[in-house]
């Protein structure tokens, strides 16, 4: 069924079953847009680890049912009465929502908005409703101000970046979908949070989508040394292709990351350490090998109850700092165009990280995420790399076998049947 101005198919996330995604493709209707909202026809959406987190947490922690998705790209269908960021027909990328009135927002740091968690994670009730008259389900929308696992999204104006003047065609609009979150986070952490220069030695822990874009951004800054750490050989090889000067393979449990980095840096350690994994063992190692006056920056999400013991005297004597990074501390309307320009110049080759899948693939993910070791390649890929799903427009093609586009990671094994 093709989407209309008010009717669309959407992937509904119901309360998880045994910590597994519980997704259904359903026909829905959408409420009217408000003054500060836009109706957007979604052409592509990335899958981020955050989608998996908020689709697998138990129902007593977060509300269900809802529409996830927060790396959308699309075409504006209609705008609210107060919207000035775009008009009908414009091509847009969708990013996070911000209140635009707190001190962080006024200081041009919207990623640290005082209401970030409230307005991005919770979403809004009664955005979507079942089109089936036999059901009374109402589905939450507004995830990160957008909810783009759907043919149509009601997006907040603060989530919208107008790129009509920057893109060549709709295929490129699809390619740029992950710029709104994952890629913005990786590059922005190097640029805006670390303020990296050519004097820096950067260590990136975890070489998924965020980590690999951090490698690209570090190369753009001509950093003195760029060290990538991961356990998958394919990622390590790609990191070297994208600019890493050194890589460390942690698949061998006997590898001591801190010692390896000490050897590479002549005992000086890193000046910038970016953790994209949330792995507490790697984070603790990062505290050790980050050098004097260096920065340890948290990007990856650890377990909710994770704690870190800090030896205060060591930090006092070395001047090390620990920082957090949300969305690369970026202002999307300014930073996303910069990333597009870097891509144009061949300096941010994000196309090397992106694969297109038909929408049916997400149901394969539902069946196999956290299921058996045979599917760890799929779960691992989803956890660390933003995957753009090619939007399909007919129900028959949605569930059939589709050609996989832009096949980059040859180690991935999966079936769409």
UniProtKB/TrEMBL annotation:
UniProt entry keywords in alphabetical sequence: Metal-binding, Oxidoreductase, Zinc
UniProt KW Oxidoreductase keyword: yes
Pfam families: ADH_N (PF08240), ADH_zinc_N (PF00107)
PROSITE patterns per the UniProt record, alphabetical: ADH_ZINC
Domain Enoyl reductase (ER): 20-359
Molecular function per GO: oxidoreductase activity; zinc ion binding
Listed cofactors: Zn(2+)
Protein origin, superkingdom: Eukaryota
Family statement: Belongs to the zinc-containing alcohol dehydrogenase family.
Protein name per UniProt: Chaperonin 10-like protein
Species of provenance: Dactylonectria estremocensis
